[in-house]
Design brief:
transmembrane helix; ComEC_N; six-stranded mixed β-sheet; 17 helices; ComEC/Rec2 family competence protein; OB fold (Dihydrolipoamide Acetyltransferase, E2P); 2 domains; about 425 residues; alpha+beta
Length: about 425
C-alpha cells in the first residue's frame, strides 16, 4: 500500500508543508531584522575551527564560531585562546540570503574569553582530541563522530580518496550504527524474550528505542543536514513499514525532503542536504528500474545487484560532486571497497574511543589519509550541472536515461584524468 490514497491527499500534505515553510521563512526574516537592528553586536559562541592563512600583509586566521542560532566565520590576526568566546561583530553588511543559510561571514573587532559550562558536544570533542596527538587525526575523528569542520588540507586528502561522504555524517553512518546496535541488542535480549515476554514484538521496540537514541545524537550534532535527512527518512520508513505501507518509493523521498525543508529553511541552501537527497534518489532509481523481488532469493544475484548499485551511484554522483569539488584522482575508484571496510572500522573505532583507546590506529590511518595525491580537475559548468539534474529527474521514465547518467559520469571522470 502507498501512504497517500490519491493525488488530493498528497497535494494537501504538500500544501501543509509549504505553509509551515513560509511561516518559518517569515520568522527567519524577523530574526534577521532583529539581528541587524544594531550595526554591531556581541555574540556568545564556541570556537569550532581555526585555519591559518598567508596574506599580503602577513599571516592571519580564519575562525569558525557556533552560536545558539547559527555558525559564522570571521578573520583575526591572532589566534584566540578561548574555546567559549564573546565575539564583537559588524552586522551592517550582512544580507538576508546569507543569514538564512545559517553559515556566513562577519567582520569582527573584539574576541574575548567567555566563561560558561561546557556543552555535552564540547566535552565529547575534548575526549576525542585527548586520545590523539596528530592535529589531522583529531580533526578526522571529530568530524567522523561530531560533524565538526575540517581543515583545507584534510578536506583535500579525503577528496583525493573520494571518501568525503564517508567522513561527513550521513545516512550511511546512521545505518551502520543502527544495524550494529540492533544486532547486538537482538542477540542479547532474544533469549530473555523467548522465556519471559514472547508476546512482545522485540524488533519493533528495539527499533523504536534506537530511533529515540539517534534523535538524541542528531541533537548533539546540531541537526547536521545530511544526518537530518537520513533520520527523517529512517523514521518515515519505520512508520511505513510498521503499518504495512510501501517504503522504497520516490514519494517517500519527497515526503522526507518536504518535512525537512518545512521545519529547517536553511536546508534549502545546504550542499550536504542536496548530496544526501540525490544519493538516495539514485539508489531508488536503480531499485525502480532493476529491482526484482525474485533476485532476493539468490545470494549471487544479491551480490551482483549490490556491486552494480555501488558502481552506478558512484558514477551518477560524479557530475554533481565535481561541480562543487572538482578534484579527481584514480584513487577515488577505491571508494567502493573502502565503504565495506568502513562498516567494520566505524563501530570498532567508536568502541575504542568509548574505552579511551581511540589512538591505536593513528599511525596507519594518517599514512592512509595522506597517501593519495590529486591527479586532475573536472570542469563542470553551471549549465551542465543544471542540465544533468534535469536529466536525472527524467531518468524515472526511461531506463536508458539512467544508464546515460552513469556513462556521462564515467566520461567526465576519465576525461579529467587523461
Amino acid at each position: 500500500m502507498n501512504l497517500f490514497a490519491n493525488f488530493r491527499q498528497f497535494s494537501l500534505f504538500v500544501a501543509i508543508c509549504m505553509a509551515i515553510f513560509v511561516l518559518n521563512f517569515y520568522l527567519e526574516f524577523r530574526n534577521y531584522e532583529k539581528f541587524k537592528s544594531s550595526p554591531y553586536s556581541f555574540i556568545k559562541a564556541n570556537l569550532l575551527f581555526s585555519d591559518k592563512r598567508q596574506g599580503k600583509s602577513g599571516d592571519y586566521y580564519i575562525l569558525q564560531f557556533k552560536s545558539d542560532k547559527f555558525i559564522f566565520y570571521t578573520r583575526s590576526k591572532d589566534l584566540p585562546k578561548c574555546s567559549s568566546c564573546e565575539v564583537g561583530v559588524i552586522t551592517k553588511n550582512l544580507k538576508f540570503k546569507d543569514y538564512i543559510t545559517s553559515r556566513f561571514f562577519l567582520p569582527s573587532f573584539k574576541i574575548s574569553d567567555f566563561d560558561e559550562p561546557k556543552s555535552l558536544t564540547n566535552r565529547l570533542k575534548e575526549s576525542i582530541i585527548n586520545q590523539h596527538t596528530s592535529t589531522k587525526i583529531q580533526e578526522l575523528y571529530s568530524a567522523l563522530y561530531l560533524a565538526t569542520p575540517i581543515s583545507k588540507e584534510l578536506r583535500q586528502n579525503v577528496t583525493n580518496w573520494g571518501i568525503a561522504h564517508i567522513i561527513a555524517i550521513s545516512g550511511f553512518h546512521l545505518s551502520v550504527i543502527f544495524i550494529f546496535i540492533f544486532f547486538i541488542s537482538n542477540f542479547t535480549i532474544k533469549p530473555l524474550q523467548d522465556r519471559y515476554f514472547p508476546y512482545i514484538n522485540l524488533r519493533f521496540y528495539i527499533s523504536l528505542i534506537l530511533f529515540i537514541l539517534m534523535g538524541f545524537y542528531l541533537y548533539i550534532l546540531d541537526f547536521t543536514p545530511s544526518f537530518l535527512r537520513s533520520y527523517i527518512m529512517g523514521v518515515v520508513g519505520f512508520l511505513l513499514l510498521s503499518r504495512g505501507l510501501k517504503v522504497f518509493s520516490f514519494g517517500n523521498l519527497i515526503l522526507s525532503i518536504l518535512i525537512g525543508l518545512a521545519f529547517s529553511v536553511e536546508l534549502l541552501f545546504s550542499i550536504g542536504f542536496y548530496f544526501s537527497c540525490f544519493g538516495v534518489y539514485f539508489i531508488f532509481l536503480y531499485i525502480y528500474h532493476f529491482g526484482n523481488k525474485e533476485d532476493l532469493s539468490s545470494y549471487k544475484r544479491i551480490f551482483i545487484h549490490t556491486l552494480a548499485l555501488e558502481i552506478f551511484v558512484f558514477l551518477a554522483m560524479n557530475i554533481p560532486v565535481y561541480y562543487f569539488f572538482p578534484t579527481v584522482s584514480w584513487y577515488q575508484l577505491s571508494v567502493i571497497p573502502l565503504a565495506y571496510v568502513f562498516i567494520i572500522f566505524y563501530p570498532l573505532s567508536l568502541f575504542l574511543h568509548l574505552i579511551g583507546c581511540g589512538g591505536i590506529f593513528d599511525e596507519w590511518v594518517l599514512k592512509f589519509i595522506e597517501f593519495a595525491p590529486s591527479q586532475g580537475r573536472a570542469n563542470v559548468d553551471l549549465w551542465q550541472f543544471i542540465a544533468y539534474n534535469i536529466l536525472a529527474l527524467l531518468a524515472i521514465y526511461k531506463k536508458q536515461i539512467m544508464i546515460l547518467l552513469a556513462l556521462l559520469g564515467l566520461f567526465v571522470y576519465i576525461f579529467a584524468l587523461i
